[in-house]
Each structure stands twice: as C-alpha cells, then as structure tokens.
Amino acid sequence: MAMELFGERGYDKTSLREIAERLGVTKAALYYHFRTKEDIVISLSEDLRRGIDDIVDWAEAMPSGRERADQIVLRYGALLHGLGKDMIRFWSENQTSFRDLGIGAGLRYQFRLLADLMAEPANTPIAVFHARQALLAISWSLSMMGDLDLNDDDSNAAATGIALDILARTPS
C-alpha cells in the first residue's frame, strides 16, 4: 500500500498519515512498526533481497546449466511479479530517493550474482550478457509496461517467456 501511494503521489509528497489512512490503521499503529517512510522502503527492499538470496541459495545447490538458468528466470519472475513489483516500480519512478536510501547497490550485486549463476558453466562475457538481458526483461516488464492493459499473470508470463528466449539464444 505504501509503495502504491509513492507511485501515485511520489515519495516526497506522501506522508505517514496518508499511508496509515490507506492501510486503515492509525498513524500511531503505523509509527509503532515504522518510524519513517524510509523504514518502510528499507523493510520492503529487505524482503525482496531475502527472496533473491533464497534463489541464490537454491541455485548454488543445483548443478549449473541451462535447466538451472531457466529455473532462476522463473523464480526471479515470480518474485518480482509478486513481492518485488512495487519495489521495482518505486525504483523506476523515484530514482533519486531510491539512490539516497542506498538500496540499489545491494540489489545490483544480487542481480549480477544471479546472472553469473545463470551463465555457468561457460561464464563467458556473452553468456553473462544474455543472462543479464534475461533478468532485465523481467525487471523492465514491471517498470516500463505499467501503462499496458495487462494483468500481472499475463505480464509475468510474457516477460519470463522473453527472458527464456534470450537464454535460448546464448551461444554454447
């Protein structure tokens, strides 16, 4: 709900009072859990980071190769189109605030780690390039396609399909 307001009104123009009203709770109840708007964004970004960490942990326990890369794409798509969609939209619409909160560096590291895991065992620059492009297809489906009349399931299916197509084009 907070991320929706940030998207509608902008991060700087949204107050804790408005967030509490949208959630249907008192400002005091919201303040008990989150003292600032920054605390809300950081908490949501930590949830997203934990989700990516779970994908990394799973991938590191699996043999490298195309099947693992495909599964990373599917898991990443499900994560972003579920938990992460509001964070990605916030990031694209409030880049200055996102940068000022210092959240982006950790997410960029995780993004690169996922791409490296997808590119194994070859791990050539072109394999890493394709892996990053595949992950970007999913991320961009959230940040740049919101004006299209697609529900989240259709958007996720299209984005993961495109991402899998990109991986299929990776030279062996």
Automatic annotation (TrEMBL):
Record-annotated HTH tetR-type domain positions: 1-52
DNA-binding residue intervals: 15-34
InterPro entries the record matches: DNA-bd_HTH_TetR-type_CS (IPR023772), Homeodomain-like_sf (IPR009057), HTH-type_TetR-like_transc_reg (IPR050109), HTH_TetR (IPR001647)
Matching Pfam families: TetR_N
Alphabetized UniProt keyword annotations: DNA-binding, Transcription, Transcription regulation
PROSITE patterns (alphabetical): HTH_TETR_1 (PS01081), HTH_TETR_2 (PS50977)
Domain of life: Bacteria
The protein's name in its UniProt record: Helix-turn-helix domain-containing protein
Naturally occurring in which organism (per UniProt): Nocardia halotolerans
